[in-house]
Design a protein that fits this description.
Length: 118
């Protein structure tokens, strides 16, 4: 299951962007800009509201790029976030960051292998 969480279906992600490669590449670049530094543990633990915004954004953008299993996993974290202890939240953030790092690597590889042509 862990491998599945970092799977990105780039064809479906492209389809989300109306099959416009330049638009999809822009979305991928925005994703990397937003999430390459990964999630900041301390910032998310400081404010539940900020955490919910960041986690929801991650869930939505992850689905948009085609990483559906990870998006679903992020959604589960989002739903249980308010009931978690700080220690559990820290654990969830670390797990999210683990898979986010893997997804980011795949997105970066895709972008390197599919350079902008227009």
């Amino acid at each position: 299951m862990t491998m599945e969480l970092s799977t990105v279906d780039f064809e479906k992600g492209l389809h989300h962007c109306d099959d416009v490669p330049s638009l999809y590449r822009e979305v991928l670049h925005c994703y990397l800009e937003e999430f390459s530094p990964l999630l900041d543990e301390d910032a998310l633990l400081t404010s539940d509201n900020e955490a919910k915004i960041n986690i929801h954004t991650l869930k939505s953008l992850t689905a948009t790029i085609g990483a559906y299993a990870f998006s679903e996993f992020v959604g589960q974290v989002f739903n249980k976030w308010p009931s978690l202890t700080d220690s559990e939240k820290r654990q969830e953030i670390r797990q999210l960051n683990h898979f986010l790092f893997e997804v980011n690597q795949k997105v970066q590889h895709y972008c390197n292998e599919n350079p902008q042509t227009d």
